[in-house]
Specification:
single chain; about 190 residues; mainly beta; seven-stranded antiparallel β-sheet; 2 helices; about 10% helix; APLP protein; VWF_type-D
């Protein structure tokens, strides 16, 4: 267990073999965090403090790159949202759930994903000796070096004070495509 002191977005877990899933802890404005979950060309962003989530379909084979308020009926991804909980899972054994009441999120991987992932959550191969692997394949025992190695964007420890502007729906879509750290178009 360790505390993330930096104000940076970090890669928690990613399937580096089949690219089946990606989980990123994003830093938002006003010391808030969101959880970015990507599975099957679909992205769900979970905002635990706000108790909300947003779902996006980034399939380039269809012309429906839009915000989806409800779960995708034709998708291989399932999402369930209760009063204080949201759970997202796929048919390949990846599950992410957040309990808003306790501010607790979990990532569960089926045996099919044994040893194919890496990130701050480790290598998922039941080997204690390689949990502190950094992206270049070497190892460290320094917490700061370990957490900084999995940062997904350039950032500073000093937060800029900005006045938030009201964002329209169209501006929000542009932000997702061109400003989000995980966007391929950034």
């Amino acid at each position: 267990m360790y505390d993330l002191a930096s104000k940076c977005s970090v890669l928690l877990a990613k399937d580096f073999v089949h690219s089946a899933f990606t989980v990123i802890l994003n830093e938002e404005i006003r010391n808030s965090r969101s959880l970015y979950v990507e599975m099957n060309q679909t992205v769900i962003t979970i905002y635990p403090r706000l108790k909300i989530s947003k779902m996006y379909n980034f399939s380039f084979t269809e012309e429906n790159c839009q915000v989806l308020d409800q779960s995708l009926e034709n998708s291989t991804m399932n999402s369930r949202q209760g009063i204080n909980k949201i759970e997202v899972s796929d048919q390949k054994g990846v599950s992410v759930s957040c309990d808003f009441q306790y501010d607790l999120c979990t990532v569960t991987l089926a045996g099919w994903h044994h040893g194919v992932s890496a990130g701050l959550f480790g290598t998922n191969d039941n080997e204690a000796g390689n949990e502190w692997m950094v992206p270049n394949g070497s190892f460290t025992d320094n917490v700061k070096e370990f957490t900084q190695s999995w940062q997904v964007n350039k950032c500073s420890l000093v937060q800029k004070k900005e006045k938030p502007c009201p964002i329209t729906a169209k501006q929000n879509i542009c932000k997702v495509f061109f400003e989000e750290p995980h966007s391929l178009l950034r």
